[in-house]
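dumping this here before i forget
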Amino acid sequence: MADNDQAVETATPRTGLLDRFFEITHRGSSIKQEIRGGIVAFVAMAYIVVLNPLILGGSEDIAGNSLDFAQLTAVTGLVAGVITILFGVVARLPFGLAAGLGMNSFLAVSVVQEVTWADAMGLVVINGVIIVVLGATGIRTAIFNAVPHALKIAITVGIGLFIAFIGFVNAGFVTRTPAGPPVQLGQDGSIGSLPTLVFVFALVLIGILVARRIPGGILIGIIVATVVAIIIQAFAKLGTVGDPVNPDPLGWNLSAPEFPKQFIAAPDFGLIGEFDLFGGFQHIGVLAATMLVFTLVFTNFFDAMGSMTGLARSAGLQTDDGMFPRIRGAFIVEGLGAVFGGGASASSNTVFVDSAAGIAEGARTGLAACVTGVLFLLSMFFSPLIAVIPMEAGAAALVVVGAMMVTQIREIEMSDFRVSLPVFLTMVTMPLTYSIANGIGVGFISWALIHAMSKRARDVHWLLWVVSAGFVLYFVRGPISAILGA
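structure:
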Protein backbone atom coordinates (compact mmCIF):
# COMPACT_ATOMS: atom_id res chain seq x y z
CA MET A 1 0.00 0.00 0.00
CA ALA A 2 2.87 2.32 0.88
CA ASP A 3 4.46 1.59 -2.46
CA ASN A 4 1.24 2.52 -4.24
CA ASP A 5 0.97 5.77 -2.25
CA GLN A 6 4.56 6.57 -3.11
CA ALA A 7 3.87 5.92 -6.78
CA VAL A 8 0.89 8.28 -6.67
CA GLU A 9 2.96 10.98 -4.98
CA THR A 10 5.72 10.57 -7.55
CA ALA A 11 3.25 10.89 -10.41
CA THR A 12 1.51 13.96 -8.98
CA PRO A 13 3.89 16.56 -10.47
CA ARG A 14 3.38 15.04 -13.89
CA THR A 15 -0.37 15.54 -13.69
CA GLY A 16 -0.15 19.05 -12.30
CA LEU A 17 -1.65 22.24 -13.73
CA LEU A 18 0.92 22.59 -16.51
CA ASP A 19 0.51 18.97 -17.53
CA ARG A 20 -3.29 19.13 -17.52
CA PHE A 21 -3.45 22.46 -19.38
CA PHE A 22 -1.20 21.33 -22.26
CA GLU A 23 -2.30 17.66 -22.07
CA ILE A 24 1.35 16.64 -21.97
CA THR A 25 0.93 13.17 -20.48
CA HIS A 26 -2.25 12.57 -22.45
CA ARG A 27 -0.33 13.08 -25.70
CA GLY A 28 2.47 10.78 -24.63
CA SER A 29 5.04 13.48 -23.93
CA SER A 30 6.87 14.98 -20.96
CA ILE A 31 7.90 18.47 -19.87
CA LYS A 32 11.54 17.72 -20.64
CA GLN A 33 10.58 16.41 -24.06
CA GLU A 34 8.51 19.53 -24.78
CA ILE A 35 11.33 21.87 -23.75
CA ARG A 36 13.81 20.00 -25.92
CA GLY A 37 11.40 20.02 -28.86
CA GLY A 38 10.77 23.75 -28.44
CA ILE A 39 14.50 24.51 -28.47
CA VAL A 40 15.09 22.40 -31.58
CA ALA A 41 12.15 24.06 -33.34
CA PHE A 42 13.65 27.49 -32.62
CA VAL A 43 17.06 26.42 -33.93
CA ALA A 44 15.38 25.16 -37.11
CA MET A 45 13.37 28.40 -37.50
CA ALA A 46 15.92 30.95 -36.27
CA TYR A 47 17.14 31.73 -39.77
CA ILE A 48 14.04 33.88 -40.24
CA VAL A 49 15.49 36.40 -37.78
CA VAL A 50 18.27 36.79 -40.35
CA LEU A 51 16.35 36.41 -43.59
CA ASN A 52 13.36 38.61 -42.83
CA PRO A 53 15.44 41.78 -42.29
CA LEU A 54 17.57 40.91 -45.33
CA ILE A 55 14.51 40.50 -47.55
CA LEU A 56 12.41 43.40 -46.27
CA GLY A 57 15.35 45.73 -45.67
CA GLY A 58 16.85 45.15 -49.10
CA SER A 59 14.04 46.79 -51.11
CA GLU A 60 13.07 50.42 -51.48
CA ASP A 61 9.40 51.30 -51.84
CA ILE A 62 7.87 53.47 -54.55
CA ALA A 63 8.89 56.59 -52.59
CA GLY A 64 12.52 55.45 -52.28
CA ASN A 65 12.23 54.57 -48.58
CA SER A 66 13.57 51.39 -46.99
CA LEU A 67 13.12 49.71 -43.60
CA ASP A 68 15.91 49.81 -41.02
CA PHE A 69 17.72 46.49 -40.56
CA ALA A 70 18.14 46.71 -36.78
CA GLN A 71 14.49 47.68 -36.32
CA LEU A 72 13.41 44.80 -38.56
CA THR A 73 15.47 42.37 -36.51
CA ALA A 74 13.77 43.59 -33.33
CA VAL A 75 10.20 43.37 -34.60
CA THR A 76 10.84 40.03 -36.34
CA GLY A 77 11.83 38.46 -33.02
CA LEU A 78 9.13 40.33 -31.08
CA VAL A 79 6.16 39.34 -33.23
CA ALA A 80 7.37 35.77 -33.72
CA GLY A 81 7.85 35.40 -29.98
CA VAL A 82 4.53 36.87 -28.93
CA ILE A 83 2.39 35.13 -31.56
CA THR A 84 4.10 31.73 -31.05
CA ILE A 85 3.51 31.90 -27.29
CA LEU A 86 -0.11 32.94 -27.89
CA PHE A 87 -0.53 30.04 -30.34
CA GLY A 88 0.92 27.62 -27.80
CA VAL A 89 -1.46 28.82 -25.08
CA VAL A 90 -4.62 29.04 -27.23
CA ALA A 91 -4.19 26.25 -29.80
CA ARG A 92 -1.89 24.16 -27.55
CA LEU A 93 -0.11 22.74 -30.57
CA PRO A 94 3.69 22.44 -31.06
CA PHE A 95 3.83 24.84 -34.01
CA GLY A 96 6.11 27.87 -34.25
CA LEU A 97 5.05 31.01 -36.11
CA ALA A 98 7.22 33.69 -37.72
CA ALA A 99 7.35 36.00 -40.74
CA GLY A 100 6.37 33.96 -43.81
CA LEU A 101 8.98 33.84 -46.56
CA GLY A 102 6.49 33.83 -49.40
CA MET A 103 4.69 36.84 -47.97
CA ASN A 104 7.75 38.96 -47.22
CA SER A 105 9.23 38.24 -50.63
CA PHE A 106 5.95 39.26 -52.27
CA LEU A 107 5.93 42.51 -50.31
CA ALA A 108 9.58 43.29 -51.06
CA VAL A 109 9.66 42.60 -54.79
CA SER A 110 6.09 43.31 -55.88
CA VAL A 111 3.88 45.31 -53.52
CA VAL A 112 6.32 48.09 -52.64
CA GLN A 113 6.90 48.74 -56.33
CA GLU A 114 3.37 50.19 -56.30
CA VAL A 115 2.91 51.55 -52.75
CA THR A 116 4.96 52.67 -49.74
CA TRP A 117 6.08 50.34 -46.98
CA ALA A 118 3.49 51.86 -44.64
CA ASP A 119 0.77 51.20 -47.23
CA ALA A 120 2.00 47.63 -47.77
CA MET A 121 1.92 46.84 -44.05
CA GLY A 122 -1.57 48.32 -43.86
CA LEU A 123 -2.67 45.83 -46.49
CA VAL A 124 -1.07 43.05 -44.42
CA VAL A 125 -3.11 44.15 -41.40
CA ILE A 126 -6.32 44.09 -43.46
CA ASN A 127 -5.34 40.64 -44.71
CA GLY A 128 -4.93 39.51 -41.09
CA VAL A 129 -8.33 40.84 -40.04
CA ILE A 130 -9.94 38.94 -42.91
CA ILE A 131 -8.10 35.76 -41.93
CA VAL A 132 -9.28 36.13 -38.33
CA VAL A 133 -12.90 36.58 -39.45
CA LEU A 134 -12.68 33.61 -41.81
CA GLY A 135 -11.25 31.46 -39.05
CA ALA A 136 -13.73 32.55 -36.39
CA THR A 137 -16.79 31.98 -38.58
CA GLY A 138 -15.72 28.65 -40.09
CA ILE A 139 -15.68 30.13 -43.59
CA ARG A 140 -11.98 29.39 -43.90
CA THR A 141 -12.55 25.66 -44.06
CA ALA A 142 -15.31 26.09 -46.67
CA ILE A 143 -13.08 28.23 -48.90
CA PHE A 144 -10.23 25.78 -48.54
CA ASN A 145 -12.48 23.04 -49.90
CA ALA A 146 -13.50 25.15 -52.93
CA VAL A 147 -10.05 25.26 -54.54
CA PRO A 148 -8.78 22.11 -56.27
CA HIS A 149 -6.12 20.26 -54.36
CA ALA A 150 -3.75 20.33 -57.33
CA LEU A 151 -3.85 24.15 -57.48
CA LYS A 152 -3.21 24.42 -53.76
CA ILE A 153 -0.06 22.37 -54.13
CA ALA A 154 0.94 24.19 -57.32
CA ILE A 155 0.81 27.54 -55.53
CA THR A 156 3.13 26.25 -52.82
CA VAL A 157 5.52 24.85 -55.43
CA GLY A 158 5.39 28.10 -57.41
CA ILE A 159 6.24 30.12 -54.33
CA GLY A 160 9.16 27.76 -53.73
CA LEU A 161 10.48 28.37 -57.25
CA PHE A 162 9.94 32.10 -56.79
CA ILE A 163 11.86 32.17 -53.50
CA ALA A 164 14.72 30.16 -55.03
CA PHE A 165 14.92 32.53 -57.99
CA ILE A 166 15.07 35.50 -55.62
CA GLY A 167 17.96 33.78 -53.84
CA PHE A 168 19.84 33.28 -57.10
CA VAL A 169 19.38 36.92 -58.06
CA ASN A 170 20.30 38.29 -54.63
CA ALA A 171 23.50 36.26 -54.64
CA GLY A 172 24.57 37.37 -58.11
CA PHE A 173 24.34 33.77 -59.30
CA VAL A 174 21.78 34.95 -61.87
CA THR A 175 22.08 38.43 -63.40
CA ARG A 176 20.60 40.50 -66.21
CA THR A 177 22.29 40.62 -69.58
CA PRO A 178 22.92 43.83 -71.55
CA ALA A 179 21.40 42.14 -74.60
CA GLY A 180 20.23 38.69 -75.68
CA PRO A 181 18.74 36.33 -73.08
CA PRO A 182 16.91 37.99 -70.16
CA VAL A 183 19.19 36.33 -67.58
CA GLN A 184 22.64 34.78 -67.41
CA LEU A 185 24.91 32.91 -65.02
CA GLY A 186 26.93 35.27 -62.80
CA GLN A 187 28.97 37.92 -64.59
CA ASP A 188 29.19 37.43 -68.37
CA GLY A 189 28.17 33.81 -68.07
CA SER A 190 30.53 32.73 -65.31
CA ILE A 191 30.88 32.97 -61.55
CA GLY A 192 33.52 35.67 -61.19
CA SER A 193 32.97 37.20 -57.76
CA LEU A 194 33.95 36.09 -54.28
CA PRO A 195 30.53 36.89 -52.76
CA THR A 196 28.84 34.58 -55.28
CA LEU A 197 31.32 31.86 -54.37
CA VAL A 198 30.31 32.36 -50.73
CA PHE A 199 26.72 31.77 -51.85
CA VAL A 200 27.69 28.55 -53.64
CA PHE A 201 29.61 27.38 -50.57
CA ALA A 202 26.68 28.18 -48.28
CA LEU A 203 24.21 26.45 -50.60
CA VAL A 204 26.24 23.25 -50.70
CA LEU A 205 26.88 23.29 -46.96
CA ILE A 206 23.24 23.92 -46.01
CA GLY A 207 22.14 21.31 -48.52
CA ILE A 208 24.42 18.71 -46.93
CA LEU A 209 23.32 19.57 -43.39
CA VAL A 210 19.63 19.46 -44.30
CA ALA A 211 20.08 16.22 -46.24
CA ARG A 212 21.73 14.67 -43.18
CA ARG A 213 18.85 16.00 -41.05
CA ILE A 214 21.12 17.98 -38.74
CA PRO A 215 18.86 20.06 -36.44
CA GLY A 216 19.31 23.73 -37.25
CA GLY A 217 21.16 22.89 -40.47
CA ILE A 218 20.03 26.08 -42.21
CA LEU A 219 21.15 28.29 -39.33
CA ILE A 220 24.46 26.45 -38.96
CA GLY A 221 25.13 26.88 -42.68
CA ILE A 222 24.38 30.60 -42.55
CA ILE A 223 26.70 31.09 -39.55
CA VAL A 224 29.60 29.15 -41.11
CA ALA A 225 29.21 30.98 -44.43
CA THR A 226 29.19 34.30 -42.57
CA VAL A 227 32.47 33.46 -40.83
CA VAL A 228 33.98 32.59 -44.21
CA ALA A 229 32.64 35.86 -45.65
CA ILE A 230 34.17 37.89 -42.79
CA ILE A 231 37.57 36.28 -43.42
CA ILE A 232 37.32 36.97 -47.15
CA GLN A 233 36.32 40.58 -46.55
CA ALA A 234 39.22 41.11 -44.14
CA PHE A 235 41.68 40.34 -46.95
CA ALA A 236 39.79 41.37 -50.12
CA LYS A 237 38.25 44.64 -48.82
CA LEU A 238 35.34 44.41 -51.28
CA GLY A 239 32.70 47.11 -51.69
CA THR A 240 29.02 46.69 -52.34
CA VAL A 241 27.16 46.44 -55.64
CA GLY A 242 24.69 49.15 -54.72
CA ASP A 243 27.10 51.67 -53.22
CA PRO A 244 25.78 55.06 -54.45
CA VAL A 245 29.27 56.63 -54.42
CA ASN A 246 31.61 53.84 -55.51
CA PRO A 247 29.71 50.71 -56.61
CA ASP A 248 31.66 47.48 -56.84
CA PRO A 249 30.15 45.15 -59.50
CA LEU A 250 32.04 42.22 -57.96
CA GLY A 251 31.22 43.20 -54.40
CA TRP A 252 28.64 42.22 -51.81
CA ASN A 253 24.97 42.61 -52.64
CA LEU A 254 23.71 44.43 -49.55
CA SER A 255 26.49 45.07 -47.03
CA ALA A 256 30.06 43.99 -46.47
CA PRO A 257 30.41 41.41 -43.67
CA GLU A 258 32.72 42.83 -41.01
CA PHE A 259 33.29 41.81 -37.41
CA PRO A 260 30.88 43.78 -35.19
CA LYS A 261 32.04 46.19 -32.50
CA GLN A 262 29.34 44.91 -30.18
CA PHE A 263 27.25 41.78 -29.98
CA ILE A 264 24.27 42.85 -27.89
CA ALA A 265 22.12 45.96 -28.14
CA ALA A 266 18.75 47.08 -26.85
CA PRO A 267 16.05 46.34 -29.47
CA ASP A 268 14.68 49.30 -31.42
CA PHE A 269 10.89 49.07 -31.77
CA GLY A 270 10.57 52.18 -33.94
CA LEU A 271 8.67 50.28 -36.66
CA ILE A 272 5.75 49.38 -34.42
CA GLY A 273 2.64 51.22 -35.56
CA GLU A 274 4.28 52.49 -38.76
CA PHE A 275 1.51 51.35 -41.12
CA ASP A 276 -1.20 53.09 -43.11
CA LEU A 277 -4.37 51.01 -43.11
CA PHE A 278 -5.99 52.51 -46.21
CA GLY A 279 -3.05 54.26 -47.88
CA GLY A 280 -2.77 51.60 -50.57
CA PHE A 281 -6.37 52.13 -51.67
CA GLN A 282 -5.70 55.86 -52.03
CA HIS A 283 -2.48 55.46 -54.00
CA ILE A 284 -3.28 52.69 -56.49
CA GLY A 285 -7.07 52.56 -56.43
CA VAL A 286 -9.65 50.26 -54.90
CA LEU A 287 -9.44 47.52 -57.56
CA ALA A 288 -5.65 47.13 -57.55
CA ALA A 289 -5.43 47.33 -53.75
CA THR A 290 -8.27 44.82 -53.35
CA MET A 291 -6.47 42.36 -55.61
CA LEU A 292 -3.28 42.77 -53.58
CA VAL A 293 -5.23 42.08 -50.38
CA PHE A 294 -6.80 39.03 -52.03
CA THR A 295 -3.35 37.74 -52.97
CA LEU A 296 -2.09 38.26 -49.43
CA VAL A 297 -5.14 36.47 -47.99
CA PHE A 298 -4.86 33.59 -50.43
CA THR A 299 -1.11 33.14 -49.87
CA ASN A 300 -1.51 33.38 -46.10
CA PHE A 301 -4.57 31.14 -46.17
CA PHE A 302 -3.23 28.15 -48.05
CA ASP A 303 0.35 28.28 -46.83
CA ALA A 304 -0.80 28.11 -43.21
CA MET A 305 -3.52 25.53 -43.87
CA GLY A 306 -1.10 23.20 -45.61
CA SER A 307 1.59 23.65 -42.95
CA MET A 308 -0.77 23.05 -40.03
CA THR A 309 -2.32 19.99 -41.62
CA GLY A 310 1.06 18.45 -42.37
CA LEU A 311 2.49 19.22 -38.93
CA ALA A 312 -0.58 17.86 -37.15
CA ARG A 313 -0.24 14.66 -39.17
CA SER A 314 3.47 14.32 -38.34
CA ALA A 315 2.71 14.86 -34.64
CA GLY A 316 -0.02 12.21 -34.69
CA LEU A 317 -2.67 14.80 -33.75
CA GLN A 318 -4.72 14.74 -36.96
CA THR A 319 -8.24 13.31 -36.71
CA ASP A 320 -9.89 10.96 -39.21
CA ASP A 321 -11.57 13.86 -41.04
CA GLY A 322 -8.23 15.60 -41.61
CA MET A 323 -8.68 18.20 -38.86
CA PHE A 324 -6.76 18.64 -35.60
CA PRO A 325 -7.48 19.76 -32.00
CA ARG A 326 -8.62 23.37 -31.41
CA ILE A 327 -8.56 24.10 -35.14
CA ARG A 328 -10.70 27.24 -34.86
CA GLY A 329 -8.44 28.75 -32.22
CA ALA A 330 -5.41 27.88 -34.36
CA PHE A 331 -6.93 29.68 -37.37
CA ILE A 332 -7.77 32.77 -35.33
CA VAL A 333 -4.32 33.11 -33.77
CA GLU A 334 -2.64 32.50 -37.13
CA GLY A 335 -4.71 35.38 -38.52
CA LEU A 336 -3.62 37.56 -35.60
CA GLY A 337 -0.06 36.78 -36.69
CA ALA A 338 -0.75 38.79 -39.84
CA VAL A 339 -2.36 41.62 -37.88
CA PHE A 340 0.54 41.85 -35.42
CA GLY A 341 3.14 41.40 -38.17
CA GLY A 342 1.69 44.15 -40.35
CA GLY A 343 1.23 46.44 -37.36
CA ALA A 344 4.92 46.08 -36.48
CA SER A 345 6.19 46.10 -40.12
CA ALA A 346 7.53 42.57 -39.65
CA SER A 347 5.31 41.11 -42.41
CA SER A 348 2.61 38.51 -41.87
CA ASN A 349 3.52 35.81 -39.34
CA THR A 350 2.35 32.30 -40.13
CA VAL A 351 2.94 28.68 -39.12
CA PHE A 352 6.39 27.40 -40.10
CA VAL A 353 6.74 23.92 -41.48
CA ASP A 354 10.22 23.96 -39.90
CA SER A 355 8.41 23.24 -36.64
CA ALA A 356 8.59 19.64 -37.82
CA ALA A 357 12.14 19.57 -36.41
CA GLY A 358 10.73 20.08 -32.91
CA ILE A 359 8.02 17.51 -33.50
CA ALA A 360 10.71 15.06 -34.59
CA GLU A 361 12.37 15.68 -31.21
CA GLY A 362 9.16 14.69 -29.45
CA ALA A 363 7.20 17.96 -29.12
CA ARG A 364 3.45 17.28 -28.99
CA THR A 365 1.91 20.22 -27.13
CA GLY A 366 1.74 23.99 -26.94
CA LEU A 367 4.40 24.04 -24.21
CA ALA A 368 7.00 23.47 -26.90
CA ALA A 369 5.61 26.44 -28.83
CA CYS A 370 5.91 28.60 -25.71
CA VAL A 371 9.57 27.62 -25.35
CA THR A 372 10.18 28.51 -29.01
CA GLY A 373 8.44 31.86 -28.53
CA VAL A 374 10.56 32.80 -25.50
CA LEU A 375 13.74 32.10 -27.50
CA PHE A 376 12.46 34.34 -30.32
CA LEU A 377 11.99 37.15 -27.79
CA LEU A 378 15.60 36.73 -26.62
CA SER A 379 16.84 37.01 -30.23
CA MET A 380 15.79 40.69 -30.31
CA PHE A 381 18.88 41.70 -28.35
CA PHE A 382 21.39 40.41 -30.91
CA SER A 383 20.76 42.70 -33.92
CA PRO A 384 24.42 43.91 -34.19
CA LEU A 385 25.56 40.32 -34.55
CA ILE A 386 22.83 39.47 -37.04
CA ALA A 387 23.63 42.54 -39.17
CA VAL A 388 27.00 40.98 -40.04
CA ILE A 389 25.40 38.22 -42.11
CA PRO A 390 25.78 38.93 -45.85
CA MET A 391 22.90 38.67 -48.29
CA GLU A 392 24.74 35.91 -50.10
CA ALA A 393 24.58 33.60 -47.07
CA GLY A 394 20.88 34.31 -46.59
CA ALA A 395 20.23 33.79 -50.30
CA ALA A 396 21.52 30.23 -50.04
CA ALA A 397 18.96 29.53 -47.34
CA LEU A 398 16.24 30.92 -49.61
CA VAL A 399 17.17 28.44 -52.32
CA VAL A 400 17.13 25.54 -49.85
CA VAL A 401 13.74 26.56 -48.44
CA GLY A 402 12.46 26.88 -52.01
CA ALA A 403 13.64 23.35 -52.73
CA MET A 404 11.79 22.10 -49.67
CA MET A 405 8.57 23.69 -50.90
CA VAL A 406 8.98 22.30 -54.42
CA THR A 407 9.10 18.72 -53.13
CA GLN A 408 5.32 18.90 -52.59
CA ILE A 409 4.84 18.56 -56.36
CA ARG A 410 4.86 14.79 -55.79
CA GLU A 411 1.31 15.10 -54.45
CA ILE A 412 -0.05 16.31 -57.81
CA GLU A 413 -1.47 13.80 -60.30
CA MET A 414 -0.24 15.17 -63.65
CA SER A 415 -1.67 12.56 -66.03
CA ASP A 416 -4.78 14.67 -66.82
CA PHE A 417 -3.81 17.65 -69.02
CA ARG A 418 -6.75 19.62 -67.62
CA VAL A 419 -4.82 19.51 -64.38
CA SER A 420 -1.22 19.56 -65.55
CA LEU A 421 -1.44 22.71 -67.71
CA PRO A 422 -2.98 25.02 -65.04
CA VAL A 423 -0.59 23.55 -62.48
CA PHE A 424 2.39 24.16 -64.75
CA LEU A 425 1.28 27.69 -65.58
CA THR A 426 0.80 28.49 -61.90
CA MET A 427 4.26 27.28 -60.97
CA VAL A 428 6.29 28.88 -63.75
CA THR A 429 4.43 32.19 -63.93
CA MET A 430 5.45 33.15 -60.40
CA PRO A 431 9.24 33.17 -60.89
CA LEU A 432 9.15 34.21 -64.56
CA THR A 433 6.98 37.27 -63.87
CA TYR A 434 8.42 37.85 -60.39
CA SER A 435 4.91 37.81 -58.94
CA ILE A 436 2.99 35.37 -56.77
CA ALA A 437 -0.26 37.14 -57.67
CA ASN A 438 0.25 36.55 -61.39
CA GLY A 439 0.83 32.84 -60.84
CA ILE A 440 -2.32 32.42 -58.77
CA GLY A 441 -4.39 34.37 -61.29
CA VAL A 442 -3.12 32.48 -64.33
CA GLY A 443 -3.70 29.18 -62.53
CA PHE A 444 -7.27 30.00 -61.55
CA ILE A 445 -8.27 31.36 -64.95
CA SER A 446 -6.70 28.51 -66.93
CA TRP A 447 -8.22 25.89 -64.62
CA ALA A 448 -11.72 27.33 -65.00
CA LEU A 449 -11.53 27.82 -68.76
CA ILE A 450 -9.96 24.47 -69.63
CA HIS A 451 -12.45 22.55 -67.52
CA ALA A 452 -15.38 24.53 -68.91
CA MET A 453 -14.29 24.07 -72.53
CA SER A 454 -13.74 20.33 -72.06
CA LYS A 455 -17.26 19.78 -70.73
CA ARG A 456 -16.20 19.71 -67.09
CA ALA A 457 -17.63 23.07 -66.00
CA ARG A 458 -19.55 21.41 -63.18
CA ASP A 459 -16.22 20.48 -61.59
CA VAL A 460 -15.33 24.17 -61.15
CA HIS A 461 -16.59 25.65 -57.88
CA TRP A 462 -18.58 28.88 -58.28
CA LEU A 463 -16.10 30.68 -56.02
CA LEU A 464 -13.30 29.85 -58.44
CA TRP A 465 -15.27 31.54 -61.24
CA VAL A 466 -15.75 34.66 -59.12
CA VAL A 467 -12.07 34.88 -58.22
CA SER A 468 -11.01 34.18 -61.82
CA ALA A 469 -13.20 37.05 -63.03
CA GLY A 470 -11.54 39.28 -60.48
CA PHE A 471 -8.10 38.27 -61.75
CA VAL A 472 -9.11 39.06 -65.33
CA LEU A 473 -9.90 42.59 -64.19
CA TYR A 474 -6.62 42.67 -62.28
CA PHE A 475 -4.58 41.69 -65.34
CA VAL A 476 -6.17 44.36 -67.55
CA ARG A 477 -6.39 47.05 -64.89
CA GLY A 478 -3.89 49.21 -66.79
CA PRO A 479 -6.00 49.60 -69.96
CA ILE A 480 -9.15 49.88 -67.86
CA SER A 481 -7.62 52.67 -65.77
CA ALA A 482 -6.50 54.42 -68.95
CA ILE A 483 -10.01 54.20 -70.42
CA LEU A 484 -11.65 55.42 -67.25
CA GLY A 485 -9.09 58.19 -66.95
CA ALA A 486 -9.78 59.27 -70.51
